[in-house]
């Protein structure tokens, strides 16, 4: 867990009173919507179809139980009893009243939660691996660096009025769970030959209308130089970024237009000038941040406790354990992923009751800590293996033990036309139908790892470009039509999917996915060949043939 | 969402209303003939040609304290005179999400 210091607490509280005043002036008509819009966007407040939406940051996906309870409280008191966890370690409330927002913000501020960096053309919430600090083989806890960047960029004038929003993600494991290659800046924590911490820096990733996979701009930037290097990138971006055209304003377009070589030369020039400035980070600063992250006092526990051995006889428990429970860096402990993808449910939603109950379980079984990942699931990062059977039973009662993590029904979907004012088509009902079609666990298990991503418009909040199967909703003659891509991926081998053919209607999407899956099952060479690998081996043609043969 | 300014150029193709979100709580509202806002589509002022539409929109935009983001939306008038949303987006805005909220699933 991370403990905020006095400066942060003051900042967060000041922010609440400032916003309270702004809302008051807006409601009295003293501020027009035009004047107010930028202010509300700096506090995470959007307008959706039915109401305002309030987006709250969960920096690097780490939550304490009192914070999760505060989110449950906001859901219950100011919203309709639930929240939606997003792909960028935020939570959204869909029905909040503007007049009550200052109270909600104040309630959250009491537990150190805020909505800064969740919207607007500024530096957004720096995201990280939801297994940070507990994943086996991790080089170092990436959240220390996420926090450093968060502190440096929060309300920093140079990062508050960028040409467009700006997103950074950090990972410190070989397997990238933070999707760094689709971020404006992706940082991969590594060590140099001397054993010093630094980063491989990637730049220019992003999805939306013009998707790009990030490119490596520098193979090693020393940890002490990371702020000046990021600042150099942002200066080049601030200087050349297209403020005149919202569709061309993201850094990915600039990197693409200048080319990575020229872009990196510009950054290098800029960096030379600021490198040895006050931006150089003292070890003390890092140590100070490090000391604010506390880790549990783990017990010495056996690798295979009796409780686990006994529970293994229960096939339902085993089904859950096999895909929800991951190895922990400490023997005798596990990382448990909590699926927010129940059959027939909207992906990523959790009710206030579930949040409260999960907070209790985290207190009991996970040293009071919860994590939020970009797949719109939660995790308990420190569960003793002997507690797994009891935890599973409790989760099951709450509807939080769907055994589908990383399977075909573990779908990422944006809010789409059910909520979002930019949407062309619905996303959530498509996800719901797919979870029903593939509800049979044996079938889902037979299919194996397969990620479906759904977006309701080209902005790609559901990351459809990098879904193994990607579904994009568009509008054609007043009707919802869906374009299907296959072969995308969001991990360390990130790739954009390929369109398989003409769009299909709302009612046909689930059938098409079934066809694709059947084709895969028939085409794979052996059961271990994952969908991704079959697509890689054979290309999209056989899938296309199968889908369009009868359509 | 199409901005009101762009809509000034737009000609309407059939009966339309002006809709927006109420400022203090964000709920969906419709401009009424009495120059106010109502949560009921049945109380919306119907415009039938582009001049009327532009005038209703201009008047709605001027009421910035009451509601935000006003725009012209198509409606259908049923045989019984009932006003119905003219497209899926407006239907969802009127009747709510089509997904069941998590508590209902
Ligand atoms: C009212 C709701 C929302 C609005 C208005 C909105 C708007 C947008 C827009 C305009 C973009 C494209 C930005 C660009 O290319 O410059 C975008 C991207 C994105 N949104 Fe949303 N969004 C909403 C909800 C969400 C939700 C619920 C999630 C998570 C589930 C999300 C996650 C993302 C992500 C990850 C991207 C990045 C894609 C990229 O790299 O360009 N957004 N959003
Ligand atoms: S992808 Fe489009 S429809 Fe989905 S949340 Fe983003 S802006 Fe809205």
From TrEMBL, chain B:
Query: Could you tell me which Pfam families the record lists for this protein?
Result: DUF2849
The superkingdom listed in its UniProt entry is Bacteria
Q: What is the name attached to this protein's record?
A: DUF2849 domain-containing protein
Q: Give the species.
A: Bradyrhizobium diversitatis
